[in-house]
Amino acid sequence: MEAQHLIDEINADFYGRFQYPPPPATFERVVQSGFARKMLAQDIGYWRSEILPDAPRVWVAGCGTNQAVVTALKFPEAQVIGSDLSSPSLDRAAETARQLGLRNLELRRESINEASYSSEFDLVISTGVIHHNADPEAALRRLGAAMKPGGILELMVYNKFHRILTTAFQGALRILAGTETRPSWQDEMDLARLLATSFRHGNFMSAFLSQNAQLPDALFADSLLQPVEYSYTVSSLRQLAAACRLELLTFCIDPFSRSTGAVNWNLNFQEPVLRERYQQLGDLERWEITNLLLGEASPMIWFYLQSVDSPRIRKSERDICDEFLRAKFCRTATEKEIFSRAMDGAYSSVPKRAPFPGKPKPGSEAARVYAALEEGAELSRTLDRLGIEQSFPQVQSLRLELATSAYPFLQACGD
């Protein structure tokens, strides 16, 4: 408990000084009522029913400067609680919420390690948080306890293969700075900047530091100076979740992986023997293989979870894809409101409107399906007409690229 309290103090100090993330150029809100709830249901394979109530309670555990704001915009019908250790981060979030006119957000300065919520939230969001705690398992237990029996947890932890260079750099930096037992942000920042601009040995570390050298302080510090961090593989996250009586449902397509195109945790082997053996495995075993074989190129470890005692039975990816083929879809056609940041740093309270979500990438198989979609009919009819193979890899790819929160081009409709 003493170590946990000390780490909370260190994190509060760190994020008070290096407020993360920096202010984005815009915030957005989809106009269609209940849109995010509908897409969340589709993410985990519920095509004809929503999994969140009409007015859900949402906890953003470790909200930083803007994640609670983003969530309140995403779920305008929800009551959103944003918790964080850093007063400056919460102050920035509160000011942004004021500028945007948000009325469904409450911000609280509190540690998730000390929060006593019990069966209170329909959705808990905690991305990039528990791995900065003294005891990530204890933190995850708090998140699980806060969920209602049928609640959903959106969780991101560091991918171990993404953090190899970062972890090595942090170790070297703290030996050099003499801050192995207690951080000194200014000393570490000064030395880290010197290393980033001068360490040139033609290796992976040199390239990594060069890529980060020009980042603003908040981004640079979050990447290279964070005082406490753990990282995970799919396998170790699975074990951590099980220890907390949680289970992985499916992966989220996060914005970072989407920007690199690494959105699918399933490999498509061309060699028949490998393909057959791989596809015969369960979801978690396939994802573990993907994590191990792709390593640093694997997606971020960003998953939906639920309690093992949830009344909702976990669906496998094959189950989800089979139901996807039988579901009936309509094209999404709505608008989004865009709140832009002015030169003085303030956000306009009068948003502009733009069509949303557009269309799939031209030339893709998803674009063909979208253009030829027979609305209100089972999706398989459209695929049959186009002569598209209905194998698991192909259907999974189409599902991810057409009917998820990241690519919300189709919404289930009809009976």
SSE layout and pairings?
Blueprint (H helix, E strand, L loop, with lengths): L1 H16 L8 E5 L4 H9 L13 E5 L5 H8 L4 E6 L2 H14 L4 E5 L11 E7 L8 H11 E11 L6 H14 L7 H14 L5 H9 L4 H8 L9 H10 L2 E6 L3 H6 L11 H8 L3 H12 L6 E7 L9 H10 L2 E3 L2 E7 L11 E5 L8 H8 L6 H8 L5 H11 L7 E3 L3
Parallel strand pairs: 2-3, 2-5, 3-4, 5-6
Antiparallel strand pairs: 1-10, 6-8, 7-8, 9-12, 10-11
Helix pairs in contact: 6-7, 14-17, 15-17
Write up what this structure looks like.
This protein is an alpha/beta fold and 415 residues long. It folds into three domains: 246 residues, Rossmann fold (3-Layer(aba) Sandwich); 60 residues, no CATH class; 93 residues, no CATH class. The protein contains 17 helices and twelve strands. α6 crosses α7, α14 packs across α17 and α15 crosses α17. The longest helix is centred in the first third of the chain and has 16 residues. The radius of gyration is 22 Å and the shape is globular. The model has no long low-confidence stretch (mean pLDDT 95).
Q: Name the assembly state.
A: single chain
What is the rounded distance between the termini?
53 Å
Radius of gyration: 22 Å
Strand order of the largest sheet: 4-3-2-5-6-8-7
Number of domains: 3
Query: What's the helix-strand series?
Result: HEHEHEHEEHEHHHHHEHHHEHEEEHHHE
CATH H-level homologous superfamily name of the largest domain: Vaccinia Virus protein VP39
Helix content: 40-55%
Shape label = globular
What fraction of residues sit in β-strands? 15-25%
CATH class of the largest domain: Alpha Beta
Largest sheet: 7 strands, mixed
Structural class: alpha/beta
Average pLDDT number = 95
Count of DSSP helices?
Answer: 17
* Record field, number of beta strands: 12
**CATH topology grouping of the largest domain:** Rossmann fold
